[in-house]
Write a structure and sequence with these properties.
Trans-hexaprenyltranstransferase (chains A, B), mainly alpha, homodimer
């Protein structure tokens, strides 16, 4: 095992604190832009948007964008505007996802659609998306606009793809990785790529940072998928078993289905079709996931993608910034332990 | 009455044909871009988007953009891409509106949300919006991007504003005009303004074309508001009385409420609160709208905005293009006769 391979093993108490500390003053500026730009003459808009924006999300994507910028230079005002735009795109996605999934809870709070209904939630998502593009235009960077508009199109395609496969238990691992590569990882990749573009990096370095974001995004989603069957609502801020009750086909389910006996497969098919929603069904699901090593193998996959993310940083100089970006990967995976 | 004032009077058999004829070859190119760009590896996306895109909408906004371009120059490939982007923004808005309003019918066909459900409809709307921005980025025009991202933000604010006022029968005329100026007219204005920007017109001419679009958009919406209480589902392609049953406060209702006796006001309040949804209630509403001159005054307002639209063209050279743009205004209003 190389030194880098051991990186994701060594630190199960990994924390986001070094990353947060590194970009603390930058994030103050970004938060100010976010607060300014979610305002509107229509009071319901900042009220609804603020409900989610102030609900304690970690703002991982802006933080990664700014940390990558610090790896290769110094963030400027234009970075703060683009970081806020990225967070708006992410927030719009969450608002629309919760409508699509009929979710009632997120981060331990009632969702916007649960409080205000689908209509205002869809429209405020649209508003944030438009505001994101306004800020990107103000940045004056056509390359940043290209990367983020392209990312937004890929995200929605991944989401529609997931919606279609939601009730198909035969979805295979490759298709699933392609879905989460689109719906989750692309915005991480775009955030990191933009840092390189704004610093005028070489194409190689741009691709390396994009790879870091892409692999980290996949590791992030796979870990989330596993956690949904592991933790309780206190630690996650969302109800455990949400994916199960929504009939979401995630990697743990795909592996357990592939490896299961006929009776197991019948169980999973019924679950994904929405006919297994009792707490006792979730208990059965957890047992099947453990017995088939589906959960541990999902986390092993997450760890491998985490290693690829860390490997992607090898061309960049060692130091506190790189250490913080590596520990962010370790933290992403350590959440499941 | 001036020659221009009489313009909206003279031609109640006005047609869109001159405009359509003028931009026929341009629109072939735009339609090709639209078909190309709604494709995706996820088959549900072109299926759902195509359902609305091929449902016989007139594509007014792209046509106006191209006709305005022909008033001052010659459209190029970049215009076709921007025209397709404008139609995608409009289509995304319609998809989301039908989710917000729980609409079952549009242009005489089942809505996408009625067929595929809210989830895919919201996401495909997001996809079209992202694709629109991709095309705008490809145009390379930061000014076009600025105008359209700004328009998109204003549209959503207008829609949220309308949603909030939907059940408030005391909404006044000024507020209503501000709402439709945002939710409907801004995209017309942006379409016409972009023609000027791409041709490198003076600021004055740019503003004149934007005014033409803005006033035409308001005339268009006011006429639609009146038609909802006038025609039947054959002529409109949507159920008559939709606004009434949705409790939508439109200008006819605002005027009838203001001018009504106490009993009338009670009726309207009950209607807007959703307690008057029978066919017999709609019949009562129609009688009250006629007796208070609310319908005819709404159409008179539409005619005045139509005149302002035509006035906005006075700095441009006479000829077939200007005639077609004038007749498009007349057609917009003549739909109610």
């Amino acid at each position: 095992m190389t030194a880098i391979n051991s990186a994701t093993d060594r630190n199960q108490a990994a924390s986001l604190k070094p990353l947060m500390h590194l970009v603390a003053s930058d994030m103050q500026a970004v938060n100010q832009v976010i607060l300014d730009r979610m305002q509107s003459e229509v009071p319901l808009i900042p009220e609804l948007a603020g409900h989610l924006i102030s609900s304690g999300g970690k703002r991982m994507r802006p933080m990664l964008m700014l940390a990558c910028s610090r790896l290769i230079g110094e963030p400027r005002d234009i970075h703060y505007k683009l970081a806020a735009a990225i967070e708006f795109i992410h927030t719009a996605t969450l608002l629309h996802d919760d409508v699509v999934d009929h979710s009632d809870l997120r981060r331990g709070k009632r969702t916007a659609n649960n409080i205000w209904g689908n209509g205002p939630t869809v429209l405020v998502g649209d508003f944030l998306l438009s505001r994101a593009f306004e800020m990107m235009v103000e940045s004056g960077s056509l390359r940043a606009l290209e990367i983020l508009s392209n990312a937004a199109a890929i995200i929605t395609q991944g989401e529609v793809d997931q919606l279609v496969s939601q009730y198909q238990v035969e979805t295979d691992e490759a298709r699933y990785l392609s879905i989460i590569g689109a719906k989750t990882a692309v915005l991480f990749a775009a955030s990191c790529r933009i840092a390189a573009v704004m610093a005028g990096c070489s194409k190689d370095k741009e691709q390396s940072l994009a790879d870091y974001g892409q692999y980290l995004g996949i590791a992030f989603q796979l870990t989330d998928d596993a956690i949904d069957y592991m933790s309780d609502s206190q630690t996650m801020g969302k109800g455990v078993g949400d994916d199960f009750r929504d009939g979401k086909v995630t990697l743990p389910v795909i592996l357990a289905y592939q490896r299961g006996e006929k009776a197991d497969r019948d169980f999973w098919r019924e679950a994904i079709e929405g006919r297994r929603v009792a707490d006792s069904d979730l208990d059965i699901a957890k047992i099947l996931l453990v017995n088939t090593d589906a959960l541990s193998d999902t986390l092993e996959r997450a760890r491998l993608y985490g290693e690829k993310a860390i490997q992607s940083l090898k061309a960049f100089p060692d130091g506190a910034v790189k250490e913080a970006l590596i520990e962010a990967v370790e933290f992403t995976i350590a959440r499941a332990y």
